[in-house]
Amino acid sequence: MQPIALKPSVDPHYTAMYAAIEGEQFPIKAADLKRVDPQYYRREVAYPTRERPGTIVVDTRNRYLYLVQENGQALRYGIGVGKAGLEFEGVGRVQYKRQWPRWTPTQDMIAREPERYGPLAAGMEPGVLNPLGPRALYLFKDGRDTLYRIHGTTEDWTIGKAVSSGCIRLLNQDIVDLYRRVPDGTRVVVLQDGPREGFMPEAV
C-alpha cells in the first residue's frame, strides 16, 4: 500500500496575511495559498535601486512587483501577467485608483474573442466575479491612458504565470495592501527584461 502524499502546510504567518477580509463592500475570501508558489507571497526584500522610495517597479519577466522602501528595501508582491501586461514598458504614473472598480474589456479583447467579451462591451459591475477584483490602479503616460492596470484577481492560481489576457494581477489581499500604500501620482516603472541592476533581490 502506497503512503498518502500530504500537501505541505502553509506557514501560519501567511495564512493570517491572506485571510478573508471583513468589512468590504463585497466579500474578499481567503486566498487559496496551496495553489500559489510560496515565492510569490508578499514579503520584504533587499532591493538596491536608484528609484526613490514609494516607486512601484513591475518586473514582468520574473513575475514580481516591488514597492520601493527606504534603506535599500522593498515590499515584493507576486504577480500574474497577460498579453496586455506585455504591451507596455517604461515609466508611467498612477493617474487614479478605484475601490471595487467596474471592468470593461478593451476593443482588442472583444475583437479577439467576440463571443466571450462582446456581451460585456458595456462594462461589468463591481463584485466578487469582476476580474479586476477589489482594487485597481490605472496607469497613464504623458497624460494618456495606457490601458495598463494593476488589479486584483478572482483566480489565485494565475499568480506567477502568464495568462491569456489582462494586465498585472495580484492576490486580492495584496492589491488591497498596495492600494492603501500608494497615492495618486505614484511613479510606476515597468520592466520587461528583468531588473536593471542584474540581480534577483532576496527575501529578508
Automatic annotation (TrEMBL):
InterPro entries: LD-transpeptidase, LD_TPept_cat_dom, Transpep_catalytic_dom
Catalytic residue list: H151 (proton donor/acceptor), C167 (nucleophile)
Pathway: Cell wall biogenesis; peptidoglycan biosynthesis
GO cellular component, one term: extracellular region
Pfam families given in the database record: YkuD (PF03734)
GO molecular function, one term: glycosyltransferase activity
Domain L,D-TPase catalytic span(s) in chain numbering: 54-191
GO terms (BP aspect): cell wall organization; peptidoglycan-protein cross-linking; regulation of cell shape
The entry's keywords: Cell shape, Cell wall biogenesis/degradation, Glycosyltransferase, Hydrolase, Lipoprotein, Peptidoglycan synthesis, Transferase
PANTHER family per record: L,D-TRANSPEPTIDASE, L,D-TRANSPEPTIDASE ERFK_SRFK-RELATED
Similarity comment text for this entry: Belongs to the YkuD family.
Protein name: Lipoprotein-anchoring transpeptidase ErfK/SrfK
